[in-house]
């Protein structure tokens, strides 16, 4: 199975539906044998440019390991969900479990429980520097 980093932004009027959406995506990934290594809810943030006359949106980051069919199903659910304004799926070389730089801000929170998703963690000292891979999908 391959590793992916998934970021999706949700319309601010639908922010209260984000926890249910996350649970639905977690169940979809887990039911097909995939794993979620990092799941962060970054909260509502200012967009760089307006999308559909919206200036703020709710951001969610997931680092997952799953088969291609699960990724296709996840992408399909993003495309046909009107609440999801944009999504980005990037193929990664390895699983990222350490908190992202956005987690340093007080608005962001990890959605995974403390022990969940930490198996096989690569410590920052062991990690080799790598370039950011090209985008797999953007809608």
Structure description:
The longest helix has 14 residues, at 18-31. It is built from two helices and six strands; from the N terminus they run βαββαβββ. A hairpin with a 2-residue loop joins β2 (35-51) and β3. 19% of the residues lie in helices and 39% in strands. With 139 residues, the chain is of the alpha+beta class. The chain starts with a strand and ends with a strand. The radius of gyration is 15 Å and the shape is globular. It has helices at 18-31, 68-79, and strands spanning 2-10, 35-51, 54-66, 84-92, 109-110, 135-138. A six-stranded antiparallel beta sheet has the order 5-2-3-1-4-6, with helices on one face.
- For this structure, the quaternary state is single chain
Q: What strand line-up does the widest sheet have?
A: 5-2-3-1-4-6
Distance between the termini: 23 Å
Radius of gyration: 15 Å
The profile of the biggest β sheet is: 6 strands, antiparallel
- Give me the number of helical elements: 2
Mean pLDDT: 82
Which terms summarize this structure?
139 residues, alpha+beta, globular
Break the fold down into its secondary structure elements and pairings.
Elements: E1 2-10, H1 18-31, E2 35-51, E3 54-66, H2 68-79, E4 84-92, E5 109-110, E6 135-138
Antiparallel strand pairs: 1-3, 1-4, 2-3, 2-5, 4-6
